[in-house]
Amino acid sequence: MFTWQLAVTLMNVGIVLLAIIGFRYGAALLIGVNAKDELDKKDNYAFGVLIGSGLLSLLLVMSGAISGDAQASLQNEFVSILAFGVAGIVMLKIGFLVQDKLVVRGVSLIDEIKNGNMAAAIVSGVNLVAIAMIIRSAIYWSEESTLNALLPVSIVFVCALIILTLVTVIRSTVYAKRNAGKKWVDAIKENNIAIAIRYAGQVIGTAIAVKGVSSLVVYSNTLLLNIAITWLVFGLGVMLLVWIIYKLVTPIILSKINLVEEVDQQGNIGVAFIEAMIFIGIAILTLTYLL
Fold first, then answer.
1. Exposure b/e, 65-103, CB count within 10 A at least 16 = b
2. What is the pTM of this model?
3. Segment 263-276, tens digit of pLDDT
C-alpha cells in the first residue's frame, strides 16, 4: 500500500513539475515577449504580475487534477491527471482570450501589459486566478477522477465565465454612470491601479462565493442541462447576494468618503483596497454559510 501511494505521489509531482516547466517556457511565447528581458532588463512589473498570476492559476488547476482517490493503475492515474491538467490549462487560455477580446473591449490587455500597464496586469491576473479557483472547485465537486467528469467540469467553467463576465459588465456600467459616461476600460488604459484593485477584490470575491454553489448542486455526468441551469442560477444568485450586502456595508465602513472622487478620479489605492477587502470578506462569510 505504501509503495503504491509513493509511486502515485511521485508521478503526480513529476506531472506538476512538467506543467510548471511548460508554463515557464510557453507563457512568454504565448504573449510574444522574452521573459528574461521583460523581468530583469526592462523591469516590467506588469509582466511579472501576469506571469505570477498565471503560475498560481496553473497550480490551482493542477492541485484539483491530482486530488481525489487514485485510479486502479498508474497508467489510468497518469491519463486522468494529464487530461484534467490539460483541460484546465485550455480553459484558462479560453478565459483569458474571452476576457481580452470580448469582455474588456476597447483596449488590448496584452499590449498594455507589454507596455508596463500594472492596472491591465491586475485585471488579467485576477481573472485567471478566479477562473482557476472555480475550475479547482468544480473538479473537487465532480466526485470522480475519471474522464467522465471532464464534460460536467467544462460546463461549470462556462457558467463561471458568464458570471465573471457579468462582474466586469456591472463594474463598467457603474463606472460609466458615476463618471459622466467615461469608459471603465479607459481608466484601465490610463493605468488607474486603484480601479484595478477594487475590481480584483470583486472578481476574487465572486469566485470565492460561487465556489459554494458546489454544495448546492448534486453532481451528475449525465444530467448536463440540469447542471448548467442550476450552477448558473445559483451562481448568479450568490453573486447578486454578495453585491447587495457589499452595497449596504460599504457606505457604513467608508462613511463620509467620496468613493468616486477618491478611487475613480484620484486613484486612491488605500480606499480601493478597503473596498476590495470588504467584498472578499462578505464573499467568505457567504461561502461559510453555504457550506
1. bbebebbeeeeebbebbebbbebbbebbeebbebbbeeb
2. 0.86
3. 988 989 999 999 99
